[in-house]
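User: Can you model how C2E sits in this protein?
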Amino acid sequence: MFVNKNNPYGSSKKILGIIAILSIIFFVFSYSVYNLFISKIEENNITSVKTSLERISTQNVERVNEIFSSTINKMNNIADIARDYLDMPQEDIVKGLYNIVEIEGFYNLGLTNRDGVCITTLDERLQLGQYDYIKECFEGAYGFTESQLSEDGRANLNIFYVPVYNNEGEIPYVLTATYTSKAMSSLLDITSYEQQGNSVVVDSNSNMINRTLVSTDKDLNIFDKPAQYADTYKVFSENFEKSDKGYVTYTYANQKYIAYYSQLKYENWYLITYVPYNNVFNVANNNTVLLKNAMNYVRIFVSCLMAVIFLAYIHYTKKFNDYIYKDSVTKKHNYTYLKRIFSNFSDEENNKKAICVMDIDNFKIVNTRFGKEAGDNVIIKVYKAFTEMLPNDSIYRDTGDLFVCTINYDNINDITDKLNLFMDKIDSEIALRNIPYIHISVGIALYKNYDSIDSAFNDALIAKSKIKGNLKRFYNFTNKEERELIEESKEIEARFNDALKKQEFEVWYQPKYDGRTGKIVGAEALVRWKKEDGTIVPPNKFIPVYENNGQIIELDMEVLRLTCENIYNLKKKGVKLVPISVNLSRFQVENGDFERNLLDIIKKYDITPQDIQFELTETKMFNSEKIMRLISVLKKHNFEVHMDDFGTGVSGLQTLSNYEFDVAKIDKSFIDRIGEKKFDSIIKGMIVLCQNLDVQVVAEGIETKEQSDFLESNGCYVFQGYYYSKPVPEEEFNKLMEDSNNIDDSEK
Ligand code: C2E
Ligand code: CA
Ligand code: CA
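Assistant: Here's the modeled complex, given as structure tokens:
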């Protein structure tokens, strides 16, 4: 089977790794370049924000200075003109100013006398003596006030004031001019940055920066909240001391601001222009955003490109590997693949493998007679027959009709047993006319005798060519194995009589359980050869040899005798027993003395039909008349006959209906594959078939709970398998019987 560690695509993994690492490097690199780039841009932005802030601020300062000085100049001119009319009553002087108000665009002009009485061009009469600026002005000061509410409370006003001198150099009046703050602020339209920024005029009093020249509808930032922002004011005033212009950054309402201040020409005032740091940054940033996006697009593009390269690489590597390692007809791995993965297995694993080379002798004829498509179909069917019958082994196509298989074995017989299974399947495919008649020859080499798969392959190829066209034999071992096999068989053959005499053959028992009750309902007698040195030889080592030379007939009878003897002894002890089934080889049909042998034994040990049953394996090699006779002998004496290995024969259905079997025993090779959809339904079908033919169904080789549950839920209840119990030596089995008797007794 194809397991991960045998992945031949290993080297491409390395390259994939390199691509992945390169991608990571690219990402890290591009990310840091990107960050560096972005931080450079940000730095530039800050510089450009500062520069533009400074420029706007400077413009504003000039403007404010100009407005102040031109207004003050104008008023000084008016005061000069007024000097000539100072003898007139205050009201009359004011009347003379009416024209000027209109011409200069003032809100009004006013004249305040030393008693603090002010008469305005709007004919108002106000008392202003209490205001500091009026007092200061009578001392000779001039200037303007911060924004303040008008006396009638209707408008915010900015008041410019100059002293009016008489010819004696005294100051009988103070001239005031008023702008509405609104008009003033439009004169000083010093908002900037898309209305985000603003300018204010403040005095230098270190922590009292609240003298706003203009009052707007706007939130005046920190500048009208002196108590709350005393710390920030302090920063400003500290800066004022150091330099007459500069930057200050501060936070207001959770937003960072950048401000530029510069000293005005009048008083000791400063104009501060401020903007929210982020907004400015973003405005100035529009280009950066574009650049950022552009860079991101580049990154995405390069990433996609890499991904495409990556996928293309995987795709083509896979294609390339498929080209090398896959066979175009079966669409499965080829011999090159086997060679590639073989070294990945441990020596221990490989030494248990046989390398089998097989080809179809008459493949050329199939191809020329039925066409290439039929030829391909044969290849596919051969491949499928193998994988279906031998799921734990592997088959690979080489070229043409040549296949290479690896078969796992413990004993050499396992290999031929498995190949027989496969060959039976091929025969049934031929019989069902799924494929035309073909003949397959197989050469077998045991990997443990070689040091490379190629040398094993070559030897197997030679072994195969020696039997090509031989219709009597379809497989052949290489010389080495041949010798080994022959020697082993010879020894087994030679030892038979001796072993029989020395009672080296013993019977082990494997219980059968009823899955519903968990109780033992039967057992199978299985022969073991216990050699003098104590080693236990399993039956598949020696039975094929004895089947070959006919000694199996005698061995079967010995097993039957030993089983009956044990039953007799147990019964004598009063132990209640379950029926025990005894295997009869297919060669028993050649035993002319079978009935006599049987009767001798059952008589001697007082055996009833409830005590023993017989298991017979159905094969196509059976001569049906002979087997019929054997079965009828058993039936005549009322013994149950079980069909062993049900499902592996050519036509289980026919056999089952033609002969009088009482029980069908589903073969382990089906049980092994419970869980595979196809096999699940085959097994269900087998159970239904048995039920319809009134044949009891038993399953052997149950190794898991899942298998047991599946069978039980589908109507098969009698189980034999390692999940319940392995075959156990006679002594152990007898104890099991005695114990279950005790339980039964105590239950009563
Ligand atoms: P079989 O008649 O099909 O017997 C069942 C075999 O499957 C036994 O192997 C048993 O140990 C094994 N088995 C049962 N349950 C499980 C399981 O859950 N997992 C696995 N892996 N194996 C399980 P054993 O005893 O080695 O016998 C092998 C074969 O030798 C038998 O197959 C039978 O064909 C033959 N055999 C054994 N004793 C005799 C005999 O006295 N006479 C003849 N003619 N053949 C015999
Ligand atoms: Ca059996
Ligand atoms: Ca069996």
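A couple of observations from the model: The chain is about 50% helix and 20% strand. Residues 1-6, 206-215 have pLDDT under 50 and may be disordered.
User: Helpful, thanks.
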